[in-house]
Design a protein that fits this description.
The complex is a heterodimer of chains A (44) and B (269).
Chain A lengths: L2 H33 L9
Chain B lengths: L12 H8 L8 H24 L13 H28 L2 H33 L7 H20 L5 H12 L2 H14 L18 H52 L11
Helix pairs in contact in B: 2-8, 3-4, 3-6, 3-8, 4-5, 4-8, 5-6, 5-7
Classes of the chains: A mainly alpha (44), B mainly alpha (269).
Chain lengths: 44, 269
């Protein structure tokens, strides 16, 4: 693999991991927020 | 002539309506701004890290991995710091907010530790000729990652929630001491890993490379903040949902005990 290949693997891997984790958090947050009375969601 | 007045709303009805109108999400206007800022900073990082900054004389293009590796390692430390401080506060105050903060910090620190180890390995292959070596910095970072996995596994045990949080907090207290070992390892032991690039009056990096690294710190900082806020709110909601489940179970049990028992039927021989 060339230097560019290692760089691409690192950047894409990091992007996919952070992006995937962020999407998981948003979905999990929506699911949990529906189970709790709106008054408990002080931020919204 | 008589006029009929509209019915007066019950006390708290307006608040109930406002509550019902709240969107079921962990987002807020502030996190939306934070998310937008993180996306802009990430776009700038891609521009500086992959396009504007030149290749290094020694590391060639693999220097571009440093623009994500170093910020990821830094925010791995920050996540551990949050967990250790929040664990200490949980042990002292026993308030659910500290427990939620400790959990959030550890999970995000694990994400950043995976990025740190992954990008470090990818950088090591063309630079050192190997993906992995049992070097002091690499080994101590792997130990820190294993501790984070253990901490999160401990939090998922089926135990009394307070006991579980206490046990996790004791492990959480050990994270910052381990971070100090990771950070100082290049000075305490002979190491392949280079020392600090920035924490000097005369940093060994300059020009657009320094700008790219600084943009990396800003982008990862904003991403870290966005993830922390959302993960904290999830932990908070999780605690509330668990409390509601417990209340529902207790109410069902009370209703069961109050229900009249069926009359015994007389058995005739």
């Amino acid at each position: 693999m060339t230097h560019a290949g290692y760089v691409a693997a690192g950047w894409i891997g990091a992007g996919v991991l952070i992006g995937g984790y962020a999407v998981t958090l948003v979905r999990r947050g929506r699911r949990l927020a529906r189970q709790v009375p709106p008054g408990e969601r002080r931020w919204s | 002539m008589t006029t009929t007045l509209p019915p007066r709303p019950a006390p708290g009805a307006a608040r109930d309506e406002a509550d019902a109108a709240r969107p079921a999400t962990t987002a807020s206007p502030a996190t939306r701004v934070l998310g937008a800022a993180a996306l802009v900073a990430t776009a700038l990082l891609v521009l500086y890290g992959l396009v504007i900054s030149p290749a290094d004389r020694e590391m060639a293009d693999s220097v571009r991995l440093m623009y994500i590796h170093v910020p990821a390692a830094t925010y791995l430390y920050v996540g551990c710091f949050f967990t250790t401080v929040a664990s200490a506060m949980w042990l002292r105050r026993r308030t659910p907010g500290w427990d939620a903060l400790a959990e959030a910090g550890a999970e995000i620190a694990l994400v950043f530790s995976i990025i740190t180890l992954g990008t470090g390995s990818l950088w090591g292959r063309p630079t050192w000729g190997t993906y992995w070596t049992w070097d002091a910095r690499l080994t101590s970072t792997a130990v820190l990652t294993a501790m984070l996995v253990g901490y999160l596994a401990l939090r998922r045990l089926e135990l009394d929630p307070a006991a579980r949080s206490t046990r996790a907090a004791v492990l959480g207290l050990l994270l910052v001491p381990n971070v100090i070992v990771v950070n100082r390892s290049v000075e305490w032991w002979r190491s392949l890993h280079q020392g600090s690039t920035l924490v000097k009056l005369d940093p060994s990096i300059e020009g657009t490379m320094l700008v790219a690294l600084m943009v990396g710190f800003v982008a990862f900082g904003l991403i870290f903040a966005w993830l922390m806020v959302h993960r904290f709110r999830i932990a908070w909601l999780d605690q509330k949902a668990d409390g509601l489940d417990l209340e529902a179970a207790l109410a069902a049990r009370r209703a069961e005990s109050r229900a009249p028992t069926a009359p015994e039927t007389e058995v005739t021989p």
